[in-house]
Amino acid sequence: MSTITAKKWPGVGVPSKYLFFRTNFLYFFTIFPLYTPFFFYINMVIMVL
Where are the transmembrane segments (predicted)? Predict the structure, then answer.
């Protein structure tokens, strides 16, 4: 997962643990009142990565 992220986002190569944390962090916001198309789009992009 981290390798794919590095390929799609050059210079962002982050550990898989940090990527996992960021995914849960965004997902945490998507299921709460802050649920907006913007957060939903970001969550979908992260999940695809």
Answer: 25-48
